[in-house]
Amino acid sequence: MDAVNYSNFRKNLKTYFRQVNDNSEPLIVINKNHKNNVVVLSKNEYDSLMETLSIQSNEYLMDKIKRGREQVSLGKIKDKIRK
Fold first, then answer.
1. Of 21, 42, 63, 75, which has the fewest beta carbons less than 10 angstroms from its beta carbon?
2. pTM score > 0.85 for this model?
């Protein structure tokens, strides 16, 4: 993850926004007071993180994922693709 100081970020805002979106990598914006640092990420990355958090907080879905992984590791899967 790249980092840039606040002044540089402000001066080159458009460039950094493009970089964040093109690379799908967050960018840390560093301030003099490190408690005020922020992370900039693309909307797609944000949506992906929120979806992951939503799934991980859903016990029913996580149980299904766990059972599916166990079935795969035991070879208890069927090919449902029809040709």
1. 75
2. no
Quick count: other Cβ atoms within 10 Å of Cβ 27? Answer: 19
Q: Which of 42, 49, 4 is nearest to 26 (CA)?
A: 42
Mean local confidence (pLDDT), 51-59: 95
Question: What is the rounded CA–CA span in Å between residue 9 and residue 15?
Answer: 9
Domain spans, the chain: 1-41, 42-77
The Cα-based distances of 59 to 47, 53, 70 in angstroms read 20, 12, 16
Q: In terms of CATH, what superfamily is 1-41?
A: YefM-like domain (3.40.1620.10)
Rounded CA-CA distance 35/53 in Å is: 24
How far apart are the C-alpha atoms of 67 and 63, rounded to whole Å? 6
Tokens of 3: 């980092």
Q: What is the pLDDT of residues 61-74, one digit of tens each?
A: 999 999 999 988 88
